[in-house]
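Posted in: Structural Biology > Protein-Ligand Complexes

Title: Requesting predicted complex, MTE in pocket

I'd be grateful if someone could produce the 3D structure tokens for the following input. Sequence and ligand are given below.
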Amino acid sequence: MLIRVPPPSRALESEVTPESVYLSRRKLMQASLALAAVGAVPGWARADTLGTYADAEPAKAPGWFDEKLSGTRWQAVVAEGESITPFKDATHYNNFYEFGTGKGDPAANAGKLQVEPWSVMVDGEVAKPGRYAIEDLIKPHAFEERIYRLRCVEAWSMVIPWLGFPLADLLKQVQPTSSARYVRFETLVDAEHMPGQRSGFSLIDWPYVEGLRLDEAMHPLAFMAVGMYGRVLPAQNGAPLRLVVPWKYGFKSIKSIVRISLVDQAPKTTWERIAPNEYGFYANVNPQVDHPRWSQAMERRLPSGLFSPNVIDTRMFNGYEEVAGLYAGMDLRTYY
Ligand SMILES: Nc1nc2c(c(=O)[nH]1)N[C@H]1C(S)=C(S)[C@@H](COP(=O)(O)O)O[C@H]1N2
Ligand SMILES: [Mo]
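-- Reply #1 --
Done. Output follows.
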């Protein structure tokens, strides 16, 4: 359960510059060029928080990833005065039930996931449906780095530097028709390599399904990640392609996507099916609407331990208040 301690002051937090974060000379030059090009960059979006990460284990990436990496726009930092979660925590404290329900299970088991070749079925209300090889889905889009807070519904959080591109760009590529109202996402089903799908005790009716309203999906903050910490996405974080919706609880950010459908009805999502009174379709981070079994007013920011629990206030929309307009006139207690 959550231990309530006063949140550390913002000043204290911003003093912490993660030693693990640095830029290579080449990336630093790219970053300053990119920053100069975009012009009005807020003071906290300093170049030394962008780029490569000393603690990130290097990994061999598919060719399509390496081809795009050098053109990355190291510009969009969205974590004012906060420090980036160590790579080790972000990759060893995971939820990915396909690999087991323990926080260490994904890191232990996801190495068996076969990510090459990978394709994504795009269907439903789109002008360009079809089975897309991941290369073809990625090719038209420049990589960006986005440093986002990730707030799990279980009241812990991290700050993760993602690599990828806006979901809106992918949707424009496949061209939703005028009847499309929602986007539905599905994760891979592969019981041979995903031990959680073999478990007889699993609550989940596979595949894992998530969804967004089309206007939410088109919001510039909604992101498709293919990498993190300047490298390709580790399997336990949802390789090779996962959604990141930073203003919503983490369970909306579906991993290892194999199908994207444009539909006219709100899809029934995995956690809604399991416990509709606890997990809604919207799942916007909201400190005022508690989970039926625990408070959502605060969160444990990882790394967190017994002697420094690092409990901080949870912010409305996880601090991404620019999305508020999407929910104008909606009672967020009803649409939780
Ligand atoms: N397919 C799938 N996607 C998933 C999950 C899952 O179990 N299966 N867990 C979700 C939850 S609850 C969270 S908090 C985030 C965790 O992402 P991370 O492990 O990269 O931090 O992934 C989400 N995406
Ligand atoms: Mo979560």
